[in-house]
Amino acid sequence: MENTLSLAKGLPDPLLPANSRSPRHNSISSAEGKAVGFVLVHAGAGYHSESKAKEYKHVCKRACQKAVDRLKAGALAVEAVTAALIELEDSPFTNAGMGSNLNLLGEIECDASIMDGKTLHYGAVGALSGIKNPVLVARRLLSEAQKGKLSAGRIPPCFLVGKGAQQWAVSHGIPPCPSEKMATKFSMSAYRRNKRKMELAEKVETDRCQLKRGRQSNDSDLGSLGKVKAIMADGEENDSACLDTVGVIVVDQEGNVAAAVSSGGLAMKHPGRVGQAALFGCGCWAQNSCNANPYSTAVSTSGCGEHLMRTMLARECSSALQSEDAHQALLEAMQNKFISSPFLASEDCVLGGVIVLRCCRCAETSSDIQALLVEFLWSHTTESMCVGYMSAQDTKAKTHISRLPPGAVAGQSLAIEGGVCRLGSTSD
């Protein structure tokens, strides 16, 4: 029988600083039924304009549904996470796959990675061009690595970049897609606008240097500065195009977890730049429970790649979730391991976001009944973060654009929200 997740009473709030208090916490419970999994997705931590909120929520709903369809068909977590991420990559509204940010040369280079919590295998690609769905390459790298060594005892790759990654993908049956076909009107418009900003900013900087040498200001100097301000103001509504990574985390009916992440990277990045979405422990993390870790955990990150790389935030959050109080543990990890990290001491604006889940089996009323208890959270230091979540026992996904509390300063404060999902399961 199909069961619907419903909102219930809020989770208890710990004592939080005023600038980081969560706007709300929802506890979600399900009726009895077979545990067939749960998915949580994000469409980037950055800025989501109200005018495009509907589109971001819609793509998150579709991604959740794709994962749930796979879970209901009996697929494991790693398959479901791939299906959801493909949906996010195919959306022209996200900065991943189709419609990704363009680099300085007007080209698309994507990063992606995936991790299987059951096997702990990992696959990743960086600065990849000419492939419509980078996550497919990362997924294929993961599966090929699981087959064991190559001929002559060679170790199979788990991380490929650039031209080599594209050639490997094509040789393994993943069709190429010309980079120009992956660009959209939206991404091309953003590229042209950003290029004008850079050119005018460089002219103003040159003019300022000349003034320091004793030259007098003239109308062209002031005019250039005015144009820069005008173009920047004109682009504020479209800043959502600069959203970084999209990601997915899943737990399946067997309690396995998986995580994946994909990104077009920073707008106007230098060719060859690789962001956190491709790097081990930075973009995503998934690890089933073991003797040392009572909880299975999955994490996917978003935000400024350099900040996330220098702090290895995905793995830090996964480790933190082994604490008794998941909410408090994530709050402390975001504050101490990210915002106040010694690795980011020179930064006055630390931008990033995470979605996390942890799960464990817990006994129900009788010895032959167990439930899969899933705790899920999201947190961000950016102005907003769009998320969606769904149980395979739910009829439709729920979506939410999380925003910093009023008066909070992006890069210095954080928001944290989430809930609990209990999925009943009859053991064999």
Q: Any overview of this molecule?
A:
The chain is of the alpha+beta class. Helix content is 31%, strand content 25%. The protein has helices spanning 53-72, 77-90, 134-145, 162-171, 179-182, 185-212, 219-234, 305-311, 313-320, 326-339, and strands at 6-7, 28-29, 38-46, 110-116, 122-128, 159-161, 246-251, 257-263, 284-287, 296-303, 352-363, 369-380, 384-391, 398-403, 415-426. Strands 6-5-4-8-7-3-13-14 form an 8-stranded mixed β-sheet. It has a 5-stranded antiparallel β-sheet with strand order 9-10-11-12-15. A two-stranded antiparallel ribbon has the order 1-2.
How many extended strands? 15
Spatial extent as radius of gyration: 22 Å
% residues in beta strands:
15-25%
Quaternary status of these chains?
single chain
Shape: globular
Concise description?
With 428 residues, the protein is of the alpha+beta class. The chain has helices spanning 53-72, 77-90, 134-145, 162-171, 179-182, 185-212, 219-234, 305-311, 313-320, 326-339; strands at residues 6-7, 28-29, 38-46, 110-116, 122-128, 159-161, 246-251, 257-263, 284-287, 296-303, 352-363, 369-380, 384-391, 398-403, 415-426.
